[in-house]
């Protein structure tokens, strides 16, 4: 339920903006710390350490590390001991700052990619149009890093078991498709677990498809194959699938309605469409108080909406298209059974399961 909106007092609003500015600067420092492996280095040091020792452990220049530590200390991420000039990363903080599903530091790197297109965004806000995916050169690598962690933690333990009867069918052997697959992490995980099933992935980005196929070959997964394909054309695919999945991909599409129509047509009768997308409502007022709501809209403004609007007649659905609009569009595509399923331990996404 959305929180009621109330106008802040003048001084309270000013302080809110100052806090936002200070926390943005802290976030920039956290992003750099994650990029440069500083949190990982500090987490492996058994005792509070000097800036020289931390820099040596991370293989970095001490003067720059010392200044970075200033951001972390004043941001209350790292604890400083003035007496012996040592610094300590509390063990209880480390899980949020080092690689793993619970890492939040990784998300701050996304801010750097978003702000990298701010000049193009300003032009789009004047004249319309969008921004091509190539303007986000590290996006697929960043997304894959995030995706691998999430799927390793949730896919086999929660997601697949939440679909009644799916595990048994995957064991026997079915045909599956992941649309907007990127580097293919969910398909690779499932292909290793269920060798009798066949997993395909479609994505428009040629470099990510090459990377996905290389990884499948490296792991010896002959049942995982990835193809360069516009997912808006899957309506004319010749073969039918038992399961189609989409992980945070529909809201980026230029023509999401056509994609959803295609998913419906690509499924066998009784087949599943498992849609995981951003947890949000379709109206901003209903998202007040929801976790990370401002961040979700920022992602939309700087990335998800403009990459859709780059294409002629792009829908520009946006990251926060929301549960309500998603249900309407899925029903319009032909799905009569559309269930919204909460994902434990994941405040960022929601699971919408459809049956043909």
Briefly say what this structure is.
47% of the residues lie in helices and 15% in strands. It contains 14 helices and 9 strands. Helix 3 (51-58) packs across helix 4, helix 8 (139-159) packs parallel to helix 10 and helix 12 (256-266) packs across helix 14 (322-333).
Query: What name does CATH use for the topology of the largest domain?
Result: Rossmann fold
Radius of gyration: 22 Å
The secondary structure category is: alpha/beta
State the name of the first-level CATH class of the largest domain.
Alpha Beta
Helix content: 40-55%
Terminal CA distance: 30 Å
Task: Give average pLDDT, whole number.
Answer: 94
Secondary-structure element pattern, one letter each: HHHHEEHHHHHEHEHEEHEHHEE
Domain unit count: 2
* Spatial strand arrangement across the major sheet: 5-4-3-6-7-9-8
**Coarse morphology:** globular
Beta-strand residue percentage: 15-25%
Give the second-level CATH assignment, the architecture of the largest domain: 3-Layer(aba) Sandwich
3D structure, described in words:
By secondary structure, this protein is an alpha/beta fold. The chain has two domains: 10-98, Winged helix-like DNA-binding domain superfamily/Winged helix DNA-binding domain (Arc Repressor Mutant, subunit A); 127-355, Rossmann fold, CATH 3.40.50.150. 47% of the residues lie in helices and 15% in strands. The protein contains 14 helices and nine strands. Helix 3 (51-58) packs across helix 4 (62-74), helix 8 (139-159) runs parallel beside helix 10 and helix 12 packs across helix 14. The longest helix is centred in the first third of the chain and has 26 residues, at 10-35.
